[in-house]
């Protein structure tokens, strides 16, 4: 396996963790290539950065809750990344978005206090860092935050978003809310959030949307709309809607696909490309070459002949069970399907793999690739792991997915930069 | 086709079908589909692909005909994180739908670029006049169903192969085989000459064996048997060169993708030894040049080119799964103000955007790209596929060039 191209770092995976690590490294002057079988959860998740939402009760302030949380979960990625690392990751990400392709679009929030925002079902979602277009959906009274009754605006052609259901669940939880439905003509019987978001990039569509919403609003209501406020210019769409309506407006996450999540991908991708990185989508890594404890080359399956990428460092950010990067076979053997690295946290024979209560802690969900405090994979000296391949976390329970992805991506990048700096100094 | 093993063919389709069980209905393919995002006539790759495929039974009529509106761009397959071969499954489904309805005479014609090329070349001035003469185009629209405004290329009136035969290249150097495709042969022979010049400048001895269409337009129009005939003939002609270890390089990115992967996967030709060998040895020109650059072997004696260049990666280029090598090559040229377009597709998809019933869809698909090109105020739009270049020129009125043409200019070879 002779590499025909060499990189300082090859990152496997184009989700939040992989693209964050890759962009940070490319910004530092490293020659970086991202290899990905496809795109990741950015296209499905709402693009809110949840850091710590539940422990196990809803967390008000991640910065106050984190010390006790990591004490109680020493195997959690946050235990090695630390609160400063998480805070720095959020700040870095905010900068990427502000320098990104969406004019004036920005994220708001930090670790001091979680936003509590409605989901499509009208549940309360705690999230540390959120797009400005979501922030007016705040459900817990706080200084400077938007308040007042909520009018959830549904669009009949949009599948899987039911304004009255969302509003009824909010009401049940003590939030004054009602739902209305728009009969928008988009030239087809059904649309997804992405199609509507593309329409919203068109000023004429925005104007007609606003004109139809305006007569439905009462007094001091805040207006919750599905997250369809544009792919190219979400800030423009949001602020225009606010000024046309004269009401505070906010987005509510939709079911996949997710326009607001794709904005995250577009921002990270633009940052990575601007820093000179090479992005290869569609190329699954199918073979790994090792010399002792070092991985020296990766073979990616491409059309015709495969491409072999030489690498000084590898960042594995291909995801966990959901993406198929970690697999549990019918023989109950769990394995890393990309690089075959050793796992940690796999329940032993006779130990429980799953809990009986669906929403209880699930031992199998905490399985991940064994790493040290630098996120170096066990048994290797140049493979770092980031994102949902890491062990010790249950992001769906903790409300921590994007926080882990971002902060572990940057932690992995820092390890590479520290070690390369040490090499250069020596 | 007697050359195709029916068992392999059936097995090939079954292999594609087996990938649909990996579909988790995540909708990522829907986010990248250029067609379903602009028209309700195509419900999208997830619906027409893995979902509808479960209801398709070999030999039974297909109840679901919207897949005819799939342009076959392949972006769904490329972006699927689960490895579902959506576009390839849809190519099979489209063939069934077309066979059922009877393949249109028009599709049989426009899918044969060599036939059109051979007919048009000797009478190029007349043919070109006809292609731009309004009443003739109206007639072609009425009779054939080719949209009167669709971007049709101009016959060059000469053939690249004729030039290549007479061309005196260097006697020494590493041998490389040039697969130039039909676009270069009949419409853009000067592009072929520039590719040869760039390769020779980098120390290659270029051979141009006798060649014909790769069969891609036939395949995308559902004429699989005819497509197999063409691609296997091409493979027979190129294989002896591949066997002696030579690389095959092509400048038509859709056609190199056909040789590399699509013919094998979609036409069920996985076990043809010639095609297998050719597939492995084939490079897209920008892929080859960037690989040389990565190895420190590409000459970089570039003169400045002061131009704003918008680069659009065609869908079929992206289907090589190698990133965008042209971007990195163009970035080597001093003076170039390079802008990466991130629109999905120009809308032509080979012959798709020529068709009367699909022209408007194609233009709507391309609108995002055309807008980005305008916003960048690009002097040139660089793009690796000829049909895309013709569409871009038609829609934006700006010149569109193969990336190699800009390298040629920067090398000062003109």
Describe this structure as you would to a colleague:
The complex is a heterodimer of chains A (426) and B (414). With 426 residues, chain A is α/β, with parallel strands linked by helices. Helices cover 32% and strands 21% of the residues of chain A. In chain A, strands 1, 2, 11, 12, 13, 14 and 19 form a seven-stranded mixed sheet that branches. In chain A, strands 8-7-9-10 form a four-stranded parallel sheet. A two-stranded antiparallel ribbon of chain A has the order 3-6. In chain A, helix 8 (234-245) links the parallel strand 9 (222-226) and strand 10. In chain A, helix 2 runs antiparallel to helix 3 (77-98). The longest helix of chain A has 25 residues, at 401-425. The radius of gyration of chain A is 22 Å and the shape is globular. In chain A, 52% of the residues are buried. Chain B is 52% helix and 8% strand. The model of chain B has no long low-confidence stretch (mean pLDDT 94). With 414 residues, chain B is an alpha/beta fold. Chain B contains 22 helices and eight strands. In chain B, helix 3 (45-53) crosses helix 5 and helix 12 (189-201) crosses helix 22 (403-410). Chain B has helices at residues 6-18, 28-32, 45-53, 75-79, 86-101, 105-110, 113-120, 124-132, 134-144, 160-166, 181-187, 189-201, 216-220, 224-243, 253-266, 273-281, 285-294, 315-318, 325-330, 359-376, 386-396, 403-410, and strands spanning 174-179, 204-207, 247-250, 282-284, 307-312, 336-340, 380-383, 400-401. Chain B is globular. The interface between A and B is large, with 40 and 38 residues.
């Amino acid at each position: 396996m002779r590499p025909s191209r060499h990189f300082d770092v090859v990152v496997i995976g184009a989700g939040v963790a992989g693209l964050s690590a890759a962009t940070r490294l490319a910004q530092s002057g490293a020659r970086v290539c991202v290899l990905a079988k496809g795109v990741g959860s950015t296209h499905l998740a709402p693009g809110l950065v949840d850091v710590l939402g539940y422990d196990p009760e809803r967390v008000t302030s991640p910065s106050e809750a984190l010390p006790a949380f990591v004490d109680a979960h020493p195997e959690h990625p946050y235990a090695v990344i630390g609160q400063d690392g998480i805070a720095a990751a959020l700040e870095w990400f905010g900068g990427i978005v502000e320098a990104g392709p969406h004019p004036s679009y920005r994220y708001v929030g930090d670790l001091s206090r979680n936003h509590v925002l409605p989901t499509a079902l009208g549940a309360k979602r705690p999230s540390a860092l959120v797009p400005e277009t979501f922030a007016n959906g705040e459900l817990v009274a706080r200084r400077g935050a938007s308040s007042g009754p909520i009018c959830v605006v549904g669009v009949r052609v949009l599948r899987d978003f039911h304004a009255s259901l969302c509003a009824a669940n909010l009401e049940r939880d003590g939030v004054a809310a009602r739902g209305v439905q728009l009969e928008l003509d988009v030239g087809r019987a059904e649309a997804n959030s992405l199609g509507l978001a593309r329409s919203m990039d068109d000023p004429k569509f925005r104007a007609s949307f606003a004109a139809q919403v305006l007569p439905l609003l009462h007094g001091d209501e805040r207006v919750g709309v599905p997250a369809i406020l544009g792919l190219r210019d979400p800030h423009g769409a949001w602020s225009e809607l606010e000024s046309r309506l004269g009401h505070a407006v906010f987005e509510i996450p939709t079911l996949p696909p997710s326009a607001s999540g794709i904005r995250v991908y577009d921002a990270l991708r633009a940052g990575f490309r601007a820093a000179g990185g090479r992005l290869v989508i569609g190329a699954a890594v199918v073979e790994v070459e090792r010399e002792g404890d070092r991985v020296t080359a990766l073979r990616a399956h491409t059309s015709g002949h495969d491409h072999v990428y030489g690498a000084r460092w590898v960042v594995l950010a291909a995801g966990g069970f959901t993406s198929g990067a970690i697999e549990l076979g019918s023989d109950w053997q769990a394995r890393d399907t990309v690089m075959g690295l050793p796992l940690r946290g796999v329940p032993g024979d006779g130990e429980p793999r799953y809990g009986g209560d669906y929403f209880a802690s699930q031992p199998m969900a905490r399985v991940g690739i064994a790493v040290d405090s630098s996120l170096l994979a066990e048994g290797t000296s140049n493979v770092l792991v980031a994102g949902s391949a890491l062990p010790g976390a249950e992001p769906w329970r903790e409300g921590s997915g994007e926080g882990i992805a971002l902060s572990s991506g940057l932690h992995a990048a820092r390890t590479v930069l520290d070690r390369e700096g040490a090499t250069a100094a020596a | 086709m007697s050359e195709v093993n029916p068992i392999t063919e059936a097995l090939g389709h079954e292999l594609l079908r087996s990938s649909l069980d990996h579909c988790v209905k995540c909708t990522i393919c829907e986010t990248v589909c250029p067609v379903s995002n602009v028209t309700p006539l195509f419900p999208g790759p997830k619906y027409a692909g893995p979902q509808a495929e479960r209801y398709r039974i070999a030999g039974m009529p297909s109840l679901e005909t919207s897949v005819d509106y799939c342009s076959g761009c392949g972006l769904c397959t490329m972006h699927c994180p689960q490895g579902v071969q959506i576009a390839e499954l849809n190519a099979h489904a489209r063939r069934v739908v077309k066979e059922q309805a009877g393949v249109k005479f028009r599709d049989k014609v426009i899918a044969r670029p060599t036939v059109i090329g051979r007919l048009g070349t000797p009478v190029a001035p007349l043919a070109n006049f006809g292609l731009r003469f309004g009443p003739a185009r109206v007639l072609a629209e009425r009779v054939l169903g080719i949209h009167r405004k669709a971007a049709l290329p101009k016959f060059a009136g000469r053939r690249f192969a004729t030039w290549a035969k007479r061309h005196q290249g260097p006697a020494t150097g590493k041998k490389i085989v040039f697969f130039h495709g039909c676009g270069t042969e009949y419409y853009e022979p000067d592009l072929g000459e520039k590719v040869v010049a760039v390769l020779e400048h980098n120390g290659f001895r270029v051979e141009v064996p006798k060649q014909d269409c790769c069969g891609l337009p036939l395949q995308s129009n559902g004429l699989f048997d005819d497509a197999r005939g063409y691609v296997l003939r091409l493979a027979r002609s190129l294989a002896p060169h591949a066997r002696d270890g030579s690389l095959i390089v092509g400048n038509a990115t859709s056609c190199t993708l056909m040789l590399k992967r699509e013919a094998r996967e979609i036409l069920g030709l996985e076990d043809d030894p010639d095609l297998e060998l050719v597939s492995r040895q084939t490079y897209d020109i920008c892929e080859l040049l960037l690989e040389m650059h990565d190895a420190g072997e590409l000459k970089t004696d570039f003169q400045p080119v002061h131009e704003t260049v918008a680069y659009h990666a065609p869908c079929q280029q992206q289907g090589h799964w190698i990133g965008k090598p042209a971007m990195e090559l163009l970035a080597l040229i001093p003076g170039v103000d390079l802008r990466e377009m991130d629109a999905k597709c120009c809308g032509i998809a080979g012959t798709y955007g020529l068709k009367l019933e699909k022209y408007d869809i194609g233009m709507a698909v391309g609108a995002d790209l055309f807008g980005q090109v305008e916003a960048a105020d690009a002097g040139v739009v660089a793009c690796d596929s000829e049909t895309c270049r013709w569409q871009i020129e038609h829609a934006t009125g700006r010149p569109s060039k193969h990336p190699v043409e800009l390298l040629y200019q920067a090398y000062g070879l003109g």
